């Protein structure tokens, strides 16, 4: 997407104090988590108030790109200089232990802090295409490009990945104390799968389903498997 934005010398993982054994400090683990999801939470503050907004996104190199209406308050605040952070989480399993205190979840999470840049012109167009193709690979090549009016009504932001935190928990519940043995314990894996496409009411009978939609319906989502995440 235009200029190549690589990791800078200031980019670094954050120190994790609680359950440090679950932290990953390599950017490959961060990239896998970001690339496996398509919805995250954009956070900012404005006039002393916290704002949290769930958003579709894509990772492009060392930046996270998001877009929304020019009337969107959080995007507008960030475009005017408010600090920004972005978080993503994948819930992979419910961990059932013999006690409620020891029960947990298997998950992959990432929190990114960085500097936001407003993208315009061709960079904005490419960023919107990248978000679409992250969700439906190849979709941007199946439809017309964006009009000037559409781009004028859209705020597109790129958040640099300057600092990040990655945490991953995988595996069964911890061994219980002797007095808590005897009850069932284990994990309940969770999966999100794409179902058969449902055409809009105004689509003519016989209109072919595009390749990008057929491909999405033919596989599970998220794309990445929790089994592929490795810790350093």
Automatic annotation (TrEMBL):
Highest taxon, organism lineage: Bacteria
Residue ranges the record marks as coiled coil: none
Report the transmembrane regions from the record. none
Q: Name one Pfam family in it.
A: Pyridox_ox_2
- Which Gene3D superfamilies has this protein been placed in? Electron Transport, Fmn-binding Protein, Chain A
- The entry's protein name is Pyridoxamine 5'-phosphate oxidase family protein
| Native source organism of the sequence | Rhodococcus rhodnii LMG 5362
């Amino acid at each position: 997407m235009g200029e190549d934005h690589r990791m800078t010398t200031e980019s670094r993982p954050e120190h994790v104090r609680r359950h440090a054994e679950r932290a990953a400090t390599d950017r490959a683990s961060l990239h896998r988590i970001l690339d496996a999801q398509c919805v995250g939470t954009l956070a900012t503050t404005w006039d002393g108030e916290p704002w949290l907004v769930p958003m579709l996104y894509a990772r492009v190199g060392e930046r996270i790109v998001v877009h929304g209406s020019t009337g969107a308050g959080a995007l507008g605040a960030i475009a005017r200089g408010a600090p920004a952070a972005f978080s993503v989480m994948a819930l992979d399993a419910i961990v059932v232990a013999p006690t409620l205190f020891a029960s947990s979840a298997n998950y992959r999470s990432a929190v990114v802090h960085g500097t936001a840049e407003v993208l315009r012109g061709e960079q904005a167009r490419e960023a919107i295409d990248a978000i679409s193709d992250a969700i439906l690979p190849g979709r941007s090549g199946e439809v017309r490009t964006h009009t000037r009016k559409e781009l004028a009504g859209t705020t597109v932001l790129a958040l640099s990945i300057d600092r990040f935190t990655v945490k991953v928990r995988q595996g069964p519940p911890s061994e219980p104390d002797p007095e808590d043995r005897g009850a069932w314990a284990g994990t309940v894996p969770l999966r999100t799968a794409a179902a058969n496409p449902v055409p809009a009411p105004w689509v003519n009978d016989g209109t072919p389903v595009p390749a990008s939609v057929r491909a999405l319906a033919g596989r599970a989502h998220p794309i990445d498997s929790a089994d592929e995440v490795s810790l350093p």
